[in-house]
Amino acid sequence: MMPLWMKLFCTTAIGLFSMNALAATATSNFQVQATVSASCNIAANPLTFATPYDPTVGTQVDGQTTLDVTCTSATNYTVALNEGLGAGATVTTRKMTSGANTLDYTLFREAGRTSIWGTTTPTETVAGTGTGAAQTLPVYGRILSGQTSVPAGTYTDTVTATITF
């Protein structure tokens, strides 16, 4: 005759084996999908010429600013700068104004100030590829020399930076 504890153990063990024998599983897979959009943002910083232009001397004055570009990783982009708001301005000769008076200047893509920054792709624009992080693009400005009849005043212009991606 079996002791009671052994009977209980055997009964429990058989029950567990029976439950395991009855347990079954099934699986199914599902796909997970997301779309990452190509995206770019651009922020322009002001360009203030630190040295005042002296029309009695008429020599050029240089200045510099930056554009901050953030694009989705591996997104190709192109940045263009328009001619500004000065009447008669072009990308080669932009015009800051003070009332009816103008002060001519140019914006360049490189420190040597030989390649203008305008709107014609690819000869006047800056191209790049996004990294997902902010990228800084320098903008080099120059007030053109020889403007000896410019009256004193504060001259301003607004240039629009456009990013295409």
UniProtKB/TrEMBL annotation:
The keyword Signal applies. InterPro entries: Spore_coat_component, Spore_coat_U/FanG. This is Spore Coat Protein U domain protein. Pfam families: SCPU. Residues 26-162 form the Spore coat protein U/FanG domain. The keyword Signal applies. Residues 1-23 form the signal peptide. PANTHER family: EXPORTED PROTEIN, PROTEIN U-RELATED.
